[in-house]
Amino acid sequence: MKIRNGKLSKEIESLNLATQEIREPYQLRFLPLKTLVVIVADEDWAVTRRREERFSTLEDESPETGTYEKNMKLRSGAQVVQVVNGGIAQNTKVSQAIAEHNASSPLLMLPQEIKNRIYYFVCGGQMVHILQNDNDYNHAHGDWSVNLTHAICIEPTSEEQIQKDFDSADSDVAWNIASVEDRHRDCYKPPPEQEKGPKRNQLSLTLLRSCRQIYMEASRIHYRNNTFAINCHDILERFVRGRFQNKQNLAIRSLHLDVSVTHVSSVDAWSEKINKAVLKRLKSVRHLYLSLTQVYCTCSVDVCAYEGSEMTERQGKMFKKLSKLPLKEATLVIDDGMFLKPLNPHYANFYDQMEQQYRWTLRQKQEFSKEVRDALLARGDVKKKN
């Protein structure tokens, strides 16, 4: 842990911590702190701003966990999330004994609301891409022996802003808009090699291993206050199933799905996993960010036209079934930047004809997105009116 403008000593009475500098949080227990202020010191201001925007609206009560969250405002005006009673259920006597043992810790003596804010800044406020380990990845769909890992999103533009750009784009002059094309590509690149310390592109959960009381209080903070992004239907099922036993799945509030379709069977595969993983096991999702990537080949493009096509109907049904979730926010952008890219220039004219006949125009993409989003949020609107 690095301390600015001072040395780590028993005489420290006031300490400002930047979350990116915390390496061994358990050391805080031994400091006679009177004041503890946690700030976000992100090298990329755009990323910090994205985190504030994305999580300023997390709220509401969770019937599955019996906890609730509400917005709090810092003196700077930034909105943060206060998670109340967010710890996991524990034996009362054991919990009380642990709390009494840690009663002298300046950190653990803080009010629960302040501790929850500290936990949030250390473990939350990110988009986390779930992916297969590069060393094990063998394109074997459904292979449960392949390990899953994760990478923190480095895309500076929020999903909300991308949705605004998508909706406001001039639909008369373009098929696609550049800002939505393969926008999370760099998030999957491995970080620079380092000899020690936590990886820069991964969440640091060292805090949860510092002591049992902190684990009891904060073990679900990173599930509740991060967006989990998944771009493969098999990974979606594996990730959710792996968190079902300890009911960690019920703590997940924010989900990003990057759905790639090439033909009818890929839509069916995604639809099946959405039924099994999302609708049955992620029942607390309130913020849903969708990205539809259309990559077609000549053998399937003839069923992909917008008007009256089987693909359009199937894709609409696949997304609209997510309206069963208690959604407060939903976005959907559509990317077909790789639509029928010809490998042989001699067939360019043929591909141009296919594009004119079957590719969705930007106006059609915008219409489809609005229709799906209206359907996703209609259930919540009906509840509010009642």
From TrEMBL:
Lineage: Eukaryota, Fungi, Dikarya, Ascomycota, Pezizomycotina
Residue stretches making up the DUF7730 domain: 103-293
Protein name per UniProt: DUF7730 domain-containing protein
InterPro entries linked: DUF7730
Native species: Letharia lupina
Pfam families the record matches: DUF7730 (PF24864)
Source taxon at top rank: Eukaryota
